[in-house]
Every structure is written in C-alpha cells, then in structure tokens.
Specification:
two-stranded antiparallel ribbon; alpha+beta; 177 residues; single chain; elongated; six-stranded mixed β-sheet
C-alpha cells in the first residue's frame, strides 16, 4: 500500500533530465483524503518528470477504472478511465496558479505533492452523468429490480414535466376569469 508520502516528489535532489515514477491508486489513496467524492479505484499512473533548470514538466499517463455510483439505479460499477495530462511547474518568487496546467512555486521549495493533481485528474476523467453501460445485446447494465421500481413510480408515458409551470399558469389564468 502506498501512503500519501509516496506521492511527494523531492525534486531538489533530482538531476536535470527525465525521471520515471509509477503509482497504483486504490481505496487507500481516497481514504486518506478528507474531501474525496470518490472512494475506490484500480488505476495505474505512469509519471514522467522532466527536471529543467527553471521548471518541472510532469506528464501523467493514467489507465484503469474508478468505482462510481450509477445515477439511475444507485448501484456501484467500475467506470474505465484512460488519458494523459501534463502539469508544468515553474520556479518563482511565490505560489501562483497561472493556468489549470501551469503553477508557479517558490524557488525555495524542494518537493511537490502530486496527490491533489492526481485526484483532480481522476475526477475530471469521469462524465457528469454516470450510468451503467449497456451489454452486447443493448440491455442496460442497471439493477433490474431498481429499473422496475422506477417504471412503477415514474411519470406516466407521454408526460413531460417541462410543461408543468406553463400548465399551472394556464390554470391560474382560467380560475381568475
């Protein structure tokens, strides 16, 4: 199990050039974060760090799956994630976030914690709407019992809730006559 300290890179002792790091992210990673929306994952991260005289270039290669809750049936399922991200860290007088992918840190700093960046990257790889994928036959992967409950308690066929406010206005107007 990797601790949060494993995600701290002491760059002052690194020679100029490229350096490789590998991380395995699982439930322990999220357990140590107080604010974590995510709880479990099986994600592999390869990090290439290029140490230059006045900056660090971090290239993240992220692959794996994150356990999310289905927005339809509320059952957890593994959502596949894959992507690359780059973070540029420049040395300056004070801490400043110039851009989403560029930060400035004081020249006196000697290490960088990649934990918050990894968490943000994982969160951004997830879609806003998280629903079980369909199987090969086109059937929903959602819990069938929950789908039946939703059908029983849902709106009647042909019902469109977007018209409710207009229908209320029409009713009030006709009641005033």
């Amino acid at each position: 199990m990797e601790t949060q300290d494993d995600f701290i890179i002491p760059f002052k002792g690194l020679a100029l050039g490229e350096h490789s790091f590998h991380y395995e992210i699982d439930a322990a990673f999220f357990a140590e974060l107080d604010y974590a929306e995510l709880q479990n994952a099986e994600v592999s991260v390869d990090l290439q760090l290029e140490r230059q005289e006045r900056m660090l270039i971090l290239d993240f290669d992220i692959r794996g799956s994150i356990e999310v809750e289905c927005d339809r049936c509320l059952e957890p399922f593994p959502f596949p994630v894959e992507g690359q991200r780059q973070l540029i860290i420049q040395f300056g007088d004070h801490y400043e976030e110039e851009d989403d992918d560029i930060i400035v840190i004081p020249s006196e700093d000697h290490q960088i914690d990649v934990t918050p960046h990894l968490y943000d990257y994982l969160l951004l790889m997830l879609p806003i709407k998280r629903v079980h994928p369909e199987d090969a036959q086109g059937r929903s992967g959602c819990n069938p019992d929950m789908l039946r409950k939703l059908e029983r308690h849902g709106d009647p066929p042909g019902y469109d809730s977007r018209w409710d406010a207009l229908n209320d206005l029409k009713k009030k107007w006709s009641d005033q006559k």
